[in-house]
């Protein structure tokens, strides 16, 4: 646990400020994603049968999330509650604990027992034509070569869980903590917001189920590292899928 007296909820104003930090980071992510897609289109990415420019795609996969996380960290440093010293790690509940890492790993692996059958059932429900994610559609049928495929694999497996957890179960979670919400209520609301934030309405129920073990890791460990590790375990199979789709 990263809890301390200094992490006690600070009330409505502190929660509102953290919510505004989350909103600023989310707007940054959306704006940079649109910009990256425009750059990719101008680079010829959408040309059927044409050469696929790898650089714009990797930028679109990584840069918006990284910038959003940096905005979240900067906003937390500037507007988070409590003393400035150690504010980011305190507000976001980040502290290195092997126990939290181990528990995150175990919860992530155990969560696959729930999420894998859910994914199969969901695919059968919506049909093969609708079952592919937006990420899968981007990589499907496009060959990039091993170096780019490895880069895409690492982004999906390791990097994306870090910046998503900073936003949703770091900043947003802390906003609700400041408002003294019940922890299970925080888990439920952040799970719903996380699933809707992907802007894939049809996949939102599946994303909600997939994110439950990740939220549980955050709740049970009291440490953002726990949910990051659980999220990375969850993303391993999609990352392998991306690698297999895009490698020659």
TrEMBL record:
UniProt-listed InterPro entries: Rce1/LyrA-like_dom
Endpoints of the signal sequence: none
Transmembrane segments: 16-42, 54-79, 100-123, 143-160, 181-199
Any Pfam family the entry gives: Rce1-like
Protein keywords: Membrane, Transmembrane, Transmembrane helix
Domain CAAX prenyl protease 2/Lysostaphin resistance protein A-like: 150-237
Domain of life: Bacteria
Name under which the protein is recorded: CAAX prenyl protease 2/Lysostaphin resistance protein A-like domain-containing protein
Biological source species: Saccharopolyspora erythraea
